[in-house]
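Hi support team,

I'm opening this ticket because the web form for multi-chain structure prediction keeps timing out on my end. I have pasted the exact lines I submitted so you can reproduce it. The total is 434 residues across two entries, so I didn't expect it to be a heavy job. Is there a limit I'm missing, or should I split the entries? Thanks in advance, R.K.
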Amino acid sequence: MPHDIEHDGAALADIHRHLHSHLPPEPALRVKALESLVVERGLVAPETLDAWIELYSEHIGPKRGAQVIARAWVDPDFHARLMDNATDAITEFGFEGNATAHLKAVENTESLHNLVVCTLCSCYPFSLLGMSPPWYKSAAYRARAVREPRMVLAEFGITLPEDVELRVWDSTAELRYLVVPQRPEGTEGWTEDQLAGLVTRNAMIGTDRDLGPGVR
Amino acid sequence: MDGIHDLGGREGFGPVVVSRDDPPFAEEWEARVYALSESVGAEDWSIDWFRHMVELLPPQAYLSIPYFEKWCMVMLSGFVNSGVFTPDQVLVGTTGETAQGEPKRRSLQDVMETDRRRCIDYSREQSTPPRFAVGDYVRTVRHGHAGHTRLPGYARDCVGEVVTAHGAHLLPDEVWKGNEVASPLYTVRFAARTLWGPDAPENDSVMIDLWEPYLEPA
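Hello R.K., no limit was hit. The queue was backed up. Here is the completed structure from your submission:
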């Protein structure tokens, strides 16, 4: 890495202030400026951008995570591998990628609930769950999930009994967290595909808890 | 830095706007920003540099502009800082130059493979023995520094228990400046009561991943 480029926070903040106060306020126009500059300079082809958008719109999303959870529910050996090293386990599906090299699965039980947040930015396991939801990136969630997580869960419709322990995971490093929800009752004999259909994105972050058929 | 980004525990933001079946991108421009972030950059950019650039946005802008607009501003300001574009080129939205080169058009299969290769290992060989072990109680430092760091303000000067020792991982405080330095990383469990006072539920906790320089023996 070159060391001749300035890493001076005050100077960088000055650039931000200058551009932010002089650029048009509409984000779409700012993005248009960025895309025009890099395309004119030959740094990227617009078709490559289209390919990335297609990838994260059609191919990479929470259905991947749901498949992993469903497999863990029906296959005890896979469940053990997922809890031991989640990155290796999702690699069996070819789901490893952006921000999942240090993936850790944390499992809900009758007496424990897990909730994931990133208070400092919005770290998220992109290659497994796709784009993060708007609420996950919101100031309200980032501020409150560590301080009053039970009130936040209530806003998601979860009344967590007092005797259920709550663990909140603040993603401050390159570790990323996948909540493994409990398999709902009444799903004996269901196929993996049927079970995957019950697993919501929010459950894999910890803001859904009961995934019983007909609940969501 | 004690920036506006350090939101954990701040009060007054009101309820969370709950949603369930969101599209990956709410607006087309958001999708373009995401795709640009995956496709362009300068040599001195790293994930930690990118995060710190978000933190350095004017505080009023940080709280008011949309998530992906922050990414757009990071790339624009970053290109200016790296000397790729001038501030004036950014403000007019064109280089004023004739188009240069014909970049390779990447297919869906190409970018899928690129995404898979972005499974980047941030762990490194541990050069010195770790100072703490699982079960140790540690106290987080009170004072940080003006650069990029990953010790949240709400967890400073607090005692917690080491629950996992992860070996050495790249240290964001150095990596953002381009210095590849690693340090032992731990998951530390803090009782909710330690962080928020006696009214917090007795058994609840917050787990935070913290590097060794953020910790002292308790």
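A quick check on our side: The longest strand of chain A covers residues 112-117. Let us know if the file doesn't open in your viewer.
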